[in-house]
Please model this.
Amino acid sequence: MPTFEEARKIILDSVSPLGVERVSLLDAVGRVIAEDITAPWDMPLCDNSAMDGFAVRAADCAAIPATLRVTGYIPAGGEVAGSVEPGCAIRIMTGAPVPPGCDAIVPIEETDGGAGETVTVMGPVELRQHIRFRGADVSAGDLVIQAGTIIRPPEVSMLASFGKAIVPVFRRARVAVLSTGDELMELGETPLPGKIVNSNALSLAASLKELGAEPVILGIARDNRESHMEKMAEGLKCDALITSAGVSAGDRDFVREVLAELGVEQRFWKVDIKPGGPTAFGVYGNRPVFSLPGNPVSTMVTFEEFVKPALLRMMGHRRVIRSFVKGILKEDVRKKAGKLNFIRVSITVENGRYVASTSGNQHTAMLRTMVRANALAVLPRETSFVPAGTEVDLHLLGSDVEMMEF
Ligand code: AMP
Ligand code: MG
Model:
C-alpha cells in the first residue's frame, strides 16, 4: 500500500499534457498557453507622449518662464504633420506620436495653457521628460508569455496588443464520470428508503467544470459485471475515467475487476489516508483511471487530492498541487493512529492567522460537514490526539475565506 505522497507521485508520473488547440482570445481565459509567445513588434511602436501638453525642445526652456510659438496640434491617434522648430511648441495629447525635433513634453499643467498663439512654460524641463520611447515596454523578439502560463486578463491584454486573435492552448480534458451501485437513483427521481440520489456524478462534474475540464456523465453502472463492462468501455474512450464506489472489498464491488478485464493496468489500490483509503488508480494506455470510494466526502476529498493535480497536469498547468498554509486548531481532535487524516474544517482569519474549527461529525457519509468546511486540515499519521492550539497544515478548498463582509 503506497503512502499518500507515493500515491500522488505514481499518479502524476502517469500523466502528461494533452494536445494543443487554437482558440479565440477570449475563449483562452483560464486556459494554459501551449507555446512561447514572442513580440512581433516593438511596444510602443513609436516614441509617444505620456501627457497631454506641449512637445518642445528642452533647450528652449533652459530659462523659465519660456514663451514658445504654438505651430501645430497632434491629437491621440493623429499624425505628425511637421517638426518642432527652435522657439516653437506643438500641442500634443497622450499617446500621440512625438514629432521630429521634440525632445521633451511639457504637461499642460506646467504651462499657462497656451490658449492663444503662444504657450508659456512655467516649470523646469528635463531632456526626454514624459516621452514613452519606442520599445520601452517590449522589444520585437522579446519572450512576452512563456508556454505553461495561465491566461489571465493581463495576458489577454498582452496578446491583444500584439494582435493575437487566436492563441494556442492545451486541450481541455474530457473526463468520463461513472457512478456504480444498485442503490442509486438519478437526479429528479423521488427518493425511496434504501435508495440515494447519484450525487457523486454531480459533485464530480461540478469539480471538473471548476477546473476547466469537460465532464461526460455516463450515468449509473448497476452492481453486475455486464453493466460495469458496458459503461466502462464507453468511459475509456475519454481522456480520463473517474468511477465512484464499488472499489472496496464487498462481494458486489466490481470496479477493479472489470477495469482489469478491459485492460486497465492497476498502479495501486488503497492508500494510507482517511477518508479515501480504498482509492484505486490505473492507466489505460496514456489515460488515467481513478476509482474513488463512494461515500460523497471520500469522493470529493480524493478528487481534490489525486484527480485534480493529474487533470491540471494534463491541461498543461505547471503548478498542480495546492500549497499548504498553516493554521491553529481550535478544538482537540481525536483520530486513529496510522493514517494521514484529512479532516473537514471551517477556517477563519483571526489577527491575520488562520484558525481552524472542525466542521462537525467526520464520518465520510456526513455530507453536511463537507458543506460547512472551507478547508481540509491534515493531521499526521502517528498521532491519535491533536490538542487545541496545535499548528496544522491546511488545504484551502476554493472558497471566500480571505474575503471580508462589508
Ligand atoms: P460502496 O463502496 O459501493 O459500498 O459505496 C459506499 C457508499 O457510498 C454507499 O453506501 C453510498 O452511500 C455511497 N455512494 C455510492 N455511490 C454514490 C453516488 N453515486 N452518490 C452518492 N453516494 C454514493
Ligand atoms: Mg456499491
Observations:
- Residues 221 and 228 are 5 Å apart (CA to CA).
- The chain has four domains: 4-19+171-317, 20-43+136-170, 48-132, 322-405.
